[in-house]
């Protein structure tokens, strides 16, 4: 076995039954140098950092030796010895890193293609912002060449920049980009000839990547990104991304400067569709188009998967049938406005899946005029996780974290809505302002955990006894407000007030303990006690203090 390994180009180790290295062939000795010598045990290995499907196929584990990253493939033991093949993973890991970079950059490019911002300068600045984040740099700029200076056209710089500002060439690294007329990338200025430049002395910028811009075949200026700290060495994926972005920026500048935007828009459409096809393949971002003259939709493969549709070319009505019924009317209204008014579409709809789950889909599109007729084209993406996160944030911002009741912010909003509704229908409504009495004694004698249980129990009782249209809000430590639409002063309101008091005065049991509180209640009715939310709450609060007796608190 050992003799046969001497003439094999791959790196092999021979291990004994205890995992101790007994031999290594010449390629392994050349690779390892003074590491993993015969007689040393094979170190503990880690899961491989490569994609799971590749590691699983090759049964690779990862071995870290200083700066050397190796993949280890153990063979079945034979005669008390076991072969271990070593693979230098550095090139593969670098390729995997660049692949992930390309995926991220394709996603950014596809997002830029669907930007709905009409102001072209603002559109450029959004693109610079997204691209700088993707490159892990701090800022970006598009500048026009003006002899011995650059004029800032658009930027995402945090400070010291403004539109139209003139930057002397000697104070920007873009001078070297313009002089070479090619992409320039420096991951650490201090390791380059630019370390002694006036730009570094003036700005302290440590990393830079820039690309010349040509507009209508003429030199226009530069696209540049920079950071105040050193960057990891720029990769070919970084360079390709900046080159693609420079083309996109140049097209945007051409649109801004060109007199005939109609013919130019078709070129942009073709380029954006190419990007969308790439993004659909790599980042599972679907694209679609709609021809008004036929009423048919064309979907990419990823769009078909997201919509769970079997065909790529089908009538619009089949796509609409996948939407939740309640969303179809809003979708059709936005779709018609895009076709006949604005030319742009931004809509989010819900889809009902086969397992009855509901997912969210965001659709963005733009109408482009062509000689053969208009075409609506755009992208669609699954935004379910983002919508669920938004809903959680909105709930947390508008509800009390302990009791789940509406908080003061949402209460004021609902009060204002109820005032407008009651004015329109010439109706009355009432609210009860409740302050718990003897609650402080529970906190002082039994602790805040007991107080929290009392608050949760009372909130639950109030929510269960009221109508679905009523609102229970917690507006203070031991204060609640009940909003009662359509309930005017009278016998029903007085009866409800007694029922609320009875629910509150019921003891709250907690194991062997039980806690008792009471309440003071103030009543206000619209419109006689106030014409806005603040006035109504103030009136009910004053009534509550009139009702409060010293013995209660």
TrEMBL record:
CDD domains: GGDEF (cd01949). InterPro entries: DGC-Regulatory_Protein, GAF, GAF-like_dom_sf, GGDEF_dom, Nucleotide_cyclase, PAS-assoc_C, PAS-like_dom_sf, Rev_trsase/Diguanyl_cyclase. Its EC number is 2.7.7.65. Keywords: Nucleotidyltransferase, Transferase. It holds the Pfam family GAF. It comes from the Bacteria. Residues 427-553 form the GGDEF domain. GO terms for molecular function: diguanylate cyclase activity. Residues 345-395 form the PAC domain. It is an enzyme of class 2 (transferase). PANTHER family: DIGUANYLATE CYCLASE DGCT-RELATED (PTHR46663), SLL0267 PROTEIN (PTHR46663:SF3). This is Diguanylate cyclase domain-containing protein. The lineage of its organism: Bacteria, Pseudomonadati, Pseudomonadota, Betaproteobacteria, Neisseriales.
